């Protein structure tokens, strides 16, 4: 098969994996004529899909042959799709060629399972090894790992990759057993735990090395001791992906699973991928995809857990039937449901409460806190910060502003709800 035909098949087969962001890489570049590639700075082309996903990585599968029969996967063994397989050298050359053309900033490589998990993982790791050791490639590499692969292969993967990921696939063990019976949820958890420990060990070693870099010498001189570099292991951490809408799991359960993954395994990101109906689908799968706005609301809720101090139980109360509201963002929905917590005084409220004001982001809150150290905040300060005043003003008070009865209005939710989305051309 021609390389271009393989690329068409295997790039298309990789589009269902959402976890391809390139944050968290260690800073590297080829300044000085050594190596090739960079993880930051000029010469990197960023492009984004209409749904906001970064597509500046060469995102491909090593092969879409697979011995597993996961019902939700278009590449399952019983699926009637065109198959292809790259060699290690082909993936290496594609990555280098696309980088030289300034089309990508790095590589996201996953694979179907062929022969055995160890055999497949060995091929994936070999791609990264050749790029790093043979071609001195300094761009970003994200490897999708296989839970059943040996710990030694996982160790090698972390040595070459900026980020590793293992997909939990579905938010509950029951869902995984029903739709992917050949996958072992316990093995996925074990692999995540091992990677979390190894990532933390490497991070601590780097901190200790930096602290002990300068050593005092007897003759009133100080010199830098040359030591072996601290071990490199996936400095971008690990991530995972959950499919949303393939089973009946509600949003409250999905966010509870994500909160557990962040807390126990210290994941950098959990990605949510709305289920897409596939050809020749099993009867256990829904015939219609969930609304894409549900995926968007889950990302917003995930952000509230990670950066705004919300717990998953607050974001989706039991009174909502376990589902996020689709007609407004979860932060605004929480504020309207808890009007007794507002208005928030901009000049006296703690940071934790300011972060709960609809329309305020983390940077906005930090700027407000810095400004109020030197003077009292007024209505005009909000205008200068370019916050969405329509959303913010009902929930705050300043030195010269009070919301009055606006907060108690029965139609407040209707006033603040976003306008209906524009209908598509073929709707």
Task: Describe this protein's structure.
The chain is of the alpha/beta class and 427 residues long. The protein contains 15 helices and ten strands. Strands 1-2-3-4-7-8 form a six-stranded parallel β-sheet. A hairpin with a 5-residue loop joins strand 5 and strand 6.
The SSE order reads HEHEHEHEHHEEEHEHHHEHHHHEH
Low-confidence stretches: 41-50, 219-224
The count of DSSP E runs of length 2 or more, i.e. the number of strands, is 10
Number of helices: 15
Short description:
The chain is α/β, with parallel strands linked by helices and 427 residues long. The protein is built from 15 helices and ten strands.
Question: What characteristics describe this protein?
Answer:
6-stranded parallel sheet; 427 residues; alpha/beta; globular; two-stranded antiparallel ribbon
Topology readout:
Elements: H1 3-13, E1 57-61, H2 88-100, E2 106-110, H3 117-134, E3 140-144, H4 151-160, E4 163-165, H5 173-179, H6 185-211, E5 214-216, E6 222-224, E7 238-244, H7 251-265, E8 269-274, H8 292-307, H9 312-315, H10 330-337, E9 344-345, H11 351-354, H12 362-371, H13 379-384, H14 389-392, E10 396-397, H15 412-416
Helix pairs in contact: 2-3, 3-4, 4-6, 7-8
């Amino acid at each position: 098969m021609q390389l271009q035909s393989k690329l068409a098949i295997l790039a298309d087969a990789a589009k269902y994996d959402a976890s391809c962001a390139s944050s968290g890489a260690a800073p590297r570049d080829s300044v000085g004529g050594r190596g090739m590639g960079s993880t930051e700075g000029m010469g990197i082309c960023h492009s984004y899909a209409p749904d906001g996903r970064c597509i500046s990585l060469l995102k491909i599968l090593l092969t879409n042959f697979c011995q597993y029969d996961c019902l939700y996967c278009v590449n399952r063994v019983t699926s009637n799709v065109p198959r292809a397989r790259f060699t290690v050298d082909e993936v290496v050359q594609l990555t280098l060629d696309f980088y030289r053309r300034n089309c990508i900033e790095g590589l996201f490589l996953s694979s179907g399972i062929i022969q055995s998990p160890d055999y497949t993982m060995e091929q994936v790791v070999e791609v990264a090894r050749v790029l790093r050791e043979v071609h001195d490639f300094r761009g970003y590499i994200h490897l999708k790992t296989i839970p059943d692969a040996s710990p030694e292969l996982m160790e090698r993967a972390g040595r070459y990759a900026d980020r590793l990921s293992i997909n939990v696939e579905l938010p509950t063990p029951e869902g995984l057993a029903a739709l992917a019976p050949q996958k072992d949820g316990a093995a996925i958890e074990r692999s995540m735990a091992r990677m979390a420990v190894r990532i933390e060990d490497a991070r601590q070693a780097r901190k200790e090395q930096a602290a002990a870099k300068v050593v005092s010498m007897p003759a009133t001189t100080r010199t830098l001791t040359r030591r072996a570099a601290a071990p490199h292991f996936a400095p971008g951490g690990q991530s995972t992906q959950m499919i949303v809408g393939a089973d009946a799991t509600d949003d409250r359960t999905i966010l509870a699973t994500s909160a557990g993954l962040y807390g126990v395994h210290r994941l950098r990101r959990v990605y949510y991928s709305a289920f897409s109906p596939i050809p020749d689908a099993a009867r256990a799968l829904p015939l219609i995809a969930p609304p894409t706005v549900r995926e968007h609301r889950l990302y917003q809720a995930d952000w509230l857990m990670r950066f705004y101090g919300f717990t998953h139980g607050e974001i989706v109360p039991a009174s909502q039937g376990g589902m996020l509201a689709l007609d407004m963002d979860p932060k605004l929905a929480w504020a309207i449901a808890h009007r007794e917590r507002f208005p928030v005084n901009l000049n006296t409220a703690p940071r934790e409460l300011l972060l709960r004001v609809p329309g305020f982001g983390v940077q906005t809150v930090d700027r407000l806190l810095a400004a109020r150290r030197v003077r009292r905040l007024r209505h005009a300060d909000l205008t200068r910060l370019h916050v969405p005043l329509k959303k913010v003003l009902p929930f705050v008070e300043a030195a010269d502003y009070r919301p009055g009865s606006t907060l108690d209005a029965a139609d407040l939710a209707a006033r603040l709800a976003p306008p209906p989305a524009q209908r598509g051309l073929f709707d």
